[in-house]
Here is the input.
Amino acid sequence: MTKDSSSNWWIFPGFTVETVLSGLDLPANIAFVPKPKSGPKDPLLYINELYGQVKVMTNDGSVFAYAAGLLNYDPDYKFPGTGESGLTGLCVEPSSGDLFLSMLYTDKDKFKAKVIRTKSNDGLSMNSSSVILEDVPSVHAAHQVQAVTVGFDRKLYVNFGDGMIDPNTAQDDNDLRGKILRLELDGSIPDDNPKSGSPVFAKGFRNPFGAVWRRSDRSLYITDNGPHVDDRVARVEAGVNYGWPKTMRQNSLMWWHFCQAPTALDFMQDEQFPAEYKNELFVALFGSSYVMGRPGSKGKKIIKMRLSADCNGLKSYDEFATYIGEGPAGPCGLAFGPDGLYFTDLHGEFDGGKQSKGHLFKIIPVVS
Here is the structure.
């Protein structure tokens, strides 16, 4: 009998975890269809696998290959290191159902970053794609292009790491790295951006992996990975400088002095959990996920926090899910679906070879 990998997770009292999918190959992020149709084979959620594949799961749990072969270079599975790069960001455009994807690519042996928009007739397989943004210098490692989201203003927001080599790019107004960009859905620059003719919405970020929009204040929140200290969560506002490389604390909502490698994040904004959890923020902490044989001292958990009324601090902070197995698993993608909090473990029981065993899990309240 195969062991259910959900048993490797400790879950906050009053909740339980279920395995939704297994055998995924480095599932980095997930995105739900904002208003899914009700048919059994209608798309419910998308999963981007780091090395260039996108899977779609339908309402009845069927899985289809939406897209494959999106990278134009061969990944190397070196963790930590160059194996961390690839197809990173994923979001669903609410009106059309189109997918926006962010990824690395090579051009004349140089690594660069781009964002594409894909279209599908049925939501189950990609029919066409177009480039929204490209030719941004990058590095074959982390600190690359990360999350993509569509805001309440129907603009496309793109998280960019600083490129790792020179952190001062985060303060260079002529460089897109270390920034949050704001674009029209066709890639053009909105007229009402903070600086005319510039796609930059905010600057001073190191490696902003995750992004989510909160309905109650119509604001964008991100996670940002620090160097050796000061990972953080920040609410992103137009034209604001978030301090890197001088500091990771400037204009931040909260920070971890002991780094935890925060990845995806989401607010409980509907009725998936009891009303007492309304507007609480859930953050995946990837941590020392390459540690095997024991739980890591950093991360490998999902935490939940309640923000203060003025969003300048925290009212509460709790561990919500913790990996207690012996593999390199750690949460990476995370998003609320219609019936619970879904998350991926990037590696699963990955043993260092070229076959990952990542999972998609779902946390739901225990029915008494």
